[in-house]
Sequence to fold (223 residues):
Amino acid sequence: MALQVRNLTRDYPTRSGTLSVLRGVDLTLDPGQSLAIMGPSGSGKSTLLYIIGTLDTPTAGSVRLDGTDPFALPEREFAAFRNRSVGFVFQDHHLLPQCTVLENVLIPTLVGTDDPAAVKDRAIKLLDRVGLSARLDHRPAELSGGERQRVAVARALIHRPALLLADEPTGNLDRTSGRAVGVLLLEVAREENAILVAVTHSAELAGTFPRTLLMDDGKLVDP
Fold:
């Protein structure tokens, strides 16, 4: 399931005229490949990530995953595509405080026709993979910041997405926890043969990725 981004642009209207955040971005990634994107605040890193993940829409250009243009899908199929084909890990874990660790990982499976026993088994295995098999019944308030982010990683992988997207995944963590989460993201993406794209301000995190690009003047360039 290759990711192909072609001539992607994103403009926003402002009082002083059109603000062009993305100016013809091109990107191709194959299954199992990982990419870190760096750049100053406001350079368009997160905008690109959100468009690739279908949380925002492009002004022009195209995004295709395994040949499918999600923005051309009917509304119901579009929502199903996002839920099953894309996994998100944000700077803030966005866990539901009233739910247990296991319940949080299972949230994306509440819609759809997945076999409950099968998805619960996968959730338990994922939580074991991220080192939280002893925390299944804990709630987010009982976890450290690094543990909460590892729950978010497991949740993002529950549907075996082709595309794993991370927006400043270590931004709220101390250095040790951040390093551990960064290594975990790379390892699980490789194990799942998923495409991993992370945007970050952390040179240390980017340095662990096999490839890094910079967002400069609305385009992706080599560092």
User: Anything to note?
Assistant: The longest helix spans residues 175-192. Residues 151 and 198 are 17 Å apart (CA to CA).
